[in-house]
Design a protein that fits this description.
Organism (chains A, B): Mesobacillus campisalis
CATH superfamily of the largest domain in chain A: Alanine racemase
Enzyme class (chains A, B): isomerase
Bound molecules: N-(5'-phosphopyridoxyl)-D-alanine
Oligomer: homodimer
Number of helices of chain A: 11
Largest interface: A-B, 94 and 94 residues
Keywords (chains A, B): Isomerase, Pyridoxal phosphate
Shape of chain A: elongated
Function (chains A, B): Catalyzes the interconversion of L-alanine and D-alanine. May also act on other amino acids.
Largest sheet of chain A: 11 strands, mixed
Helix content of chain A: 25-40%
Structural class of chain A: alpha/beta
CATH architecture of the largest domain in chain A: Alpha-Beta Barrel
Strand content of chain A: 25-35%
Distance between the termini of chain A: 27 Å
Pfam family, one (chains A, B): Ala_racemase_N
Radius of gyration of chain A: 24 Å
CATH topology of the largest domain in chain A: TIM Barrel
Number of strands of chain A: 21
């Protein structure tokens, strides 16, 4: 109470994060490390809390999308190795070196630029990214890879600590393209003079399905959050996963409309008879997209539909009868015997589950739970413009 | 440089905000005030910078969706009146009173609850919200309105400073429902013993189209940001509006694919011949939704399509030929003679323009410009968990 002033919040169950990581840990040989993928504010769950939960459960490294995300974690006290998976500007290598953040390199020209600005006495840890068929980031030619290795070995300020690639189809039942990528990656490894210490290829889907692709570590994202990498492989996952994220609100007004009365913008929804309508304070600026019109939410353990257009900060539901103002609404998660999963929301949005928690905006406070009790809260909106 | 480390950012042109407000100001009688609607982080543009620009251009009050947003503005130094448009918990009235933030009331029972907790000697400014047909928040019955007025007058700690309603269809060519709402609101005003000082009904669409609905103030949202309230009325707006928001990135890798090579997850995109593909560091966790696959972006003043699935932090474009790594990409805005408007993105997403900048997440730094020069930058990700 008093830490956020609007009754809309997300809950993140840290026990679920930990148990997901521990369960997956049991599948892996002891010498295979877990890199917890906490980019995009830990898929919307909150970077530092998830990082710490993953580390408690056995992760030994963190991966982020870009340097700012790594710096954010360092400032919040993270001391384990951090790998930036995406591109970084060569001109920023001293920042990475100072904070002991490992960068990803995939172009020879970048190494030249980095060498020109990296201050004497600094050490920069690098992983080489190979594009084995994702067509996104990565070196594709064996010649370039060889000269990158030579160039890095040539300069004592660079430490080539790892090499990796990323799979495009590890979450599909058809394994052909996956195998092609794996073979291509192995060919690329074979052209190196020395294998780097940390070789990794597997995202969640591969970690759960392809023990042959383990190498030294797996990069665990979606499964850590308790979500299946795809609908296709969901029925055949080798471990149980528990969704950590849920989304909640409370009714701010409950009113009886007369037959014919309209609801929301465009007056597109019309009460078919006398109807009880509830208003709740969440809308598309919270990441509860307009396209979720018609989606059901839970009130008193019962599914009720969103009616009328979803507004920027609010939306309306049709209630089975009068319920008190302040009644709890669950938009994602469990209420009594009913449950709305992230997969259900993703299906309604015709997208993948990954996108759903990422979309829930920073305007929605994250409440963290352990043993069913609130242990922390993050409400960015009240942090103000403090110094960076 | 050095204030954000990934080459993806939004630009907000503060001169456009000011000129939009000034142009609309010229349409209004002198005694009609402008309330700048800066809820939802100023529709994604950034609350404090937009608030100050609007005030410079003549706005005298700010409106937000909920109390946290008002507190955020106060902490950033705003001293003009602030109105919370949405519901607030009765138990939080002392916070509002302390910060001189005006709340919205629409239920008699709320007044009782507020009276029970408001400390002696405090003063709370309130606007009554009337539901004249939006079916969202607001008092609907004349009797309840009358007893609310009486109850507020009865207690010296409450100051009834305003009354308002909101239109559902002011942005439609057909004015019937609008007129019905206006008549209903006027009826509601007529049952009051004393008219409050500040009566307001008009959003941007009504402010631009219905001088008869001005009362004491208009609540200006979307038009201030330079966007038309709807496609329907866009051709007939009485003033020119300039879009303030643009979105930018830079290519991080450029590679030649062979015919048959695949791009991104699912390997769904296949190069039809040898093709140049560029990667850029923006994805759905930035609010650049997966549904934008196929959307064009600008590089060297030319439209190029996004190919393959959009990833969490990255997406790929098909280039007309080789272009240098680091080339500027404009996703929203102008490049040379070409322009991609927010309306174009909204159409691709089958949504309204309002939703688009709201979706661009806090991971994307906002760069503020005046006279074509950068005057400020906000990169929330590097603010860390500072005390709230
Ligand atoms: C390089 C890399 N490694 C590992 C992961 C973890 O994947 P998963 O969440 O499936 O375990 C990702 C996530 N990718 C996101 C989803 C993307 O780029 O869209 C990644 O880009
Ligand atoms: C009460 C109220 N007043 C004024 C405005 C400004 O409207 P406009 O941006 O059209 O000028 C809004 C915005 N509404 C948003 C868009 C919503 O609730 O969805 C509002 O809710």
């Amino acid at each position: 109470k008093g830490l956020f002033y609007r009754d809309t919040w997300a809950e993140v169950d840290l026990d679920s994060i930990e148990s997901n990581v521990r369960r997956i840990r049991t599948l892996l040989p002891e010498k295979v490390d877990i890199i917890a993928v906490v980019k995009a504010n830990a898929y919307g769950h909150g970077d530092i809390k998830i990082a710490n939960a993953a580390i408690r459960a056995g992760a030994t490294m963190l991966a982020v999308a870009f340097l700012d995300e790594g710096l954010s974690l360092r400032r919040k006290g993270v001391s384990v190795p951090i790998l930036v998976l995406g591109a970084s500007r060569a001109e920023d290598v001293n920042v990475a070196a100072n904070e002991n953040i490992t960068l990803t390199v995939f172009q020879e020209s970048w190494i030249e630029q980095a060498a020109a600005v990296l201050l004497p006495g600094k050490e920069l840890s690098l992983h080489i990214k190979v594009d084995s068929g994702m067509g996104r980031l990565g070196v594709r030619s064996e010649e370039e890879l060889q000269s990158m290795e030579a160039r890095l070995k040539d300069d004592p300020r660079f430490r080539l600590t790892g090499m990796f690639t990323h799979f495009a189809t590890a979450d599909e039942l058809d394994g052909h393209y996956f195998q092609k990528q794996q073979a291509r990656f192995e060919k690329m490894i074979s052209v190196l003079t020395t294998k780097p210490a940390c070789i990794h290829t597997s995202n969640s889907a591969a970690a759960l399905r392809y023990p042959g692709a383990y190498f030294s570590a797996v990069r665990l994202g979606i499964a850590m959050y308790g979500l299946a990498p795809s609908f296709e492989i969901k029925p055949s996952l080798p471990v149980e996963l528990t969704e950590a994220f849920s989304l909640h609100s409370r009714l701010t007004q409950v009113k009886k409309l007369q037959k014919g009365d309209k609801v929301s913008y465009g007056a597109t929804y019309e009460a078919a008879s006398d109807e009880w309508i509830g208003t709740m304070p969440i809308g598309y600026a919270d990441g509860w997209l307009r396209r979720l019109q018609g989606q059901e939410v839970l009130i008193n353990g019962i599914r009720v539909p969103i009616v009328g257009r979803i507004c920027m900060d609010q939306c309306m539901v049709r209630l089975p009868g009068e319920v008190p103002v302040g009644s709890a609404v669950t938009l994602i998660g469990k209420q009594q015997e009913e449950r709305i999963s992230i997969d259900e929301i993703a299906a309604k949005l015709e997208t993948i589950n990954y996108e759903v928690p990422c979309l829930i905006s920073s305007r929605v406070p994250r409440v963290y739970k352990k043993d069913g009790k609130i242990v922390a809260l993050n409400n960015p909106i009240l942090k103000g413009d403090c110094p960076s």
